[in-house]
Amino acid sequence: MKWACFITGTDTGVGKTIVTAALAAALVQRGLRVGVMKPAETDCPPEQGREGAHDAQLLRWAARCTAPLELVVPYALPLPLAPALSAEEAGVTIELAEIVRCYRELLETHDVVLVEGAGGLLVPLTAQQTMLDLAVTLELPLLVVARNVLGVINHSCLTVAVASRRTRVLGVVLNHPVPLDESDPAVRRNADALRRWCPVPLYGPLPHLADLSEEALTAAGSRLLSAKLLEGMALDIAEGEGIAAEAAAAAGEGIPTEPLNDAGA
């Protein structure tokens, strides 16, 4: 059995990387080999290249992933723009086929692969393709990260509505990328409102993580993981279809679920 999902967001700066790292750390704690991927990362200093891809580096560390950076972050782009624009400015052509190749290599040697997009669902990856197109090409279900602020109901419902037309949406993670403002009535009511009006499960709310230690990330990821979430991440891959037989056998029959919390815990 293999598990994978594509982590997207309702916007940039909602905490996708932290949520992805937290899930990776929690899955590692359960004895799984976790691969991570940031197909295109921008704002990478040109003199550092992939070494300066800080999101990808954090994901790789949290997952204890030893895969080459070339697989984890196929495109490290200099300007802090949408990947398609940053690539144009740098004279780089982003090839979907190259991203697919890297993903498949990671999947062959890991039990779980977490793919983090850039920005929101419809951010352009190339001149013709968006982050949603990439998730659909990889045949991955989506997990949506949303920031707990006024407006999150609309942002989340719009993202889920658009995504659901083309792929499965596992749920929404309500996140606090900045410290919680308990005086804000929207912050207090958003979780219940999303459970009421957003047609997918809600995971969280996840508290603000000022400490990005392995222990803190693992604890946060464990708050999000549930048997239902992992079941949704299971890939329907026939033996031999792009997955080495020995890798499939090494993945085992199932995933430990007893320590996991229910959604919304």
UniProtKB/TrEMBL annotation:
Q: What function is annotated for this protein? A: Catalyzes a mechanistically unusual reaction, the ATP-dependent insertion of CO2 between the N7 and N8 nitrogen atoms of 7,8-diaminopelargonic acid (DAPA, also called 7,8-diammoniononanoate) to form a ureido ring.
Query: What is an example of a Pfam family matching this protein?
Result: AAA_26
* Listed transmembrane segments: none
Q: Where on this chain does substrate bind?
A: 42
UniProt keyword ATP-binding, yes or no: yes
Q: What does the record give as its pathway?
A: Cofactor biosynthesis; biotin biosynthesis; biotin from 7,8-diaminononanoate: step 1/2
Instruction: Report the protein name in the record.
Output: ATP-dependent dethiobiotin synthetase BioD
Self-association state and partner proteins as the record states: Homodimer.
Naturally occurring in which organism (per UniProt)? Thermogemmatispora tikiterensis
Q: Which GO terms describe its molecular function?
A: ATP binding; dethiobiotin synthase activity; magnesium ion binding
Q: Which GO terms describe its cellular component?
A: cytosol
Predominant location: cytoplasm
Using the record, list the residue span of the signal peptide; answer none if the entry has no such feature.
none
